[in-house]
Design goal:
- This protein has about 220 residues and is of the alpha+beta class.
- The protein has one domain: Bira Bifunctional Protein, Domain 2 (BirA Bifunctional Protein, domain 2, 2-Layer Sandwich).
- It is built from 5 helices and 10 strands, in the order βαβββββααββββαα.
- The protein has a 7-stranded mixed β-sheet, sandwiched between helices.
- Strand 8 and strand 9 form a beta hairpin.
- The protein starts with 6 loop residues before the first strand and ends in a 7-residue tail after the last helix.
C-alpha cells in the first residue's frame, strides 16, 4: 500500500473481466507464496456476474441472468457489477499472523471504518460474515460482502462494497444465502464515487494491517 513498499496498491479503472481478474489474482498469490512478488491490494470493478463460493446452493441461483463463475472462495452466491467496489487482498499471513478468523474480522473492520469515512454507519452482525447498515425504516441491510480463500497462508479474494450498483441485479440470487435486503451508498442518499471510497480505505490502511496480528474482540 501507499507508504508500505512491501505491498502493491493497484487501482484498475473501468470494468475488468471476473475470469481475467481471478486468473491474475491466483497467479499473484502463487508468486507471493514463493516470495517472488509483493503482496497486493487490488481495487477494481467487474461487469455483471454471479460468483459461486464453495458452499453455493443451486437452489439459491434464482435467475441466472448473468454469467455464473465458480470463484473458489468461501461462501455462497454473490453478485459483482458496475458501481460496486471490489477489493482483492493477496496478503501473506505467514508474516502477518496465521489466523483466518482474525483476517476476516480485520477486513470487516477496515471496510466499516472506510464507510464511516464517507458518512455511512455500518456494523458487523453476530454469526454472519459481511457488512450491514440500517435502512431508514430501521431494518438491517447488507452493504458489503466478504469472501476469502487462503492457500499456503496467502489470502485471495476479499470484499465487495455497494456504492452505486443496480440493486435489482441481486434479485437473480439469494445473496450469500441470506434473506436480508441489500442496499448501497447511493440508495442511502450518499454520493460516493470510487476515488472517494478508495481514499477512505487508504487513510485506514495502517490500522488494518496492524489488526491482522491482534486478538479478535468478542
Amino acid at each position: 500500500m501507499t507508504g508500505d513498499t512491501s505491498i502493491e496498491w493497484r487501482v484498475t479503472p473501468g470494468l475488468t473481466s471476473y475470469a481475467d481478474a481471478l486468473a491474475a489474482m491466483e497467479a499473484r498469490a502463487a508468486a507471493v507464496a514463493t516470495g517472488t512478488e509483493r503482496e497486493l491490494v487490488w481495487l477494481l470493478e467487474h461487469p455483471p456476474v454471479y460468483t459461486a463460493g464453495t458452499s453455493a446452493d443451486p437452489a439459491e441461483l434464482i435467475e441466472p441472468r448473468f454469467p455464473v463463475i465458480a470463484a473458489g472462495r468461501g461462501g455462497r452466491y454473490t453478485y459483482h457489477g458496475p458501481g460496486q467496489r471490489v477489493g482483492y487482498l493477496v496478503l501473506d499471513l505467514n508474516r502477518r499472523g496465521r489466523d483466518v478468523r482474525c483476517f476476516v474480522h480485520a477486513v470487516e473492520g477496515w471496510v466499516i471504518a472506510a464507510l464511516a469515512g464517507i458518512g455511512i454507519g455500518a456494523h458487523r452482525s453476530p454469526g454472519r460474515v459481511g457488512i450491514w447498515t440500517l435502512l431508514p425504516d430501521g431494518r438491517e441491510a447488507k452493504i458489503g460482502a466478504i469472501g476469502v480463500r487462503v492457500r499456503r497462508w496467502v489470502t485471495l479474494h476479499g470484499f465487495a462494497v455497494n456504492l452505486a450498483p443496480d440493486l435489482s441485479h441481486f434479485g437473480g440470487i439469494v445473496p450469500c444465502g441470506l434473506p436480508d435486503p441489500v442496499t448501497s451508498a447511493a440508495a442511502l442518499g450518499r454520493s460516493a464515487d470510487f476515488a472517494t471510497f478508495d481514499a477512505a480505505l487508504a487513510l485506514r490502511k495502517v490500522e488494518f494491517l496492524e489488526t491482522l496480528s491482534c486478538p479478535v474482540e468478542n
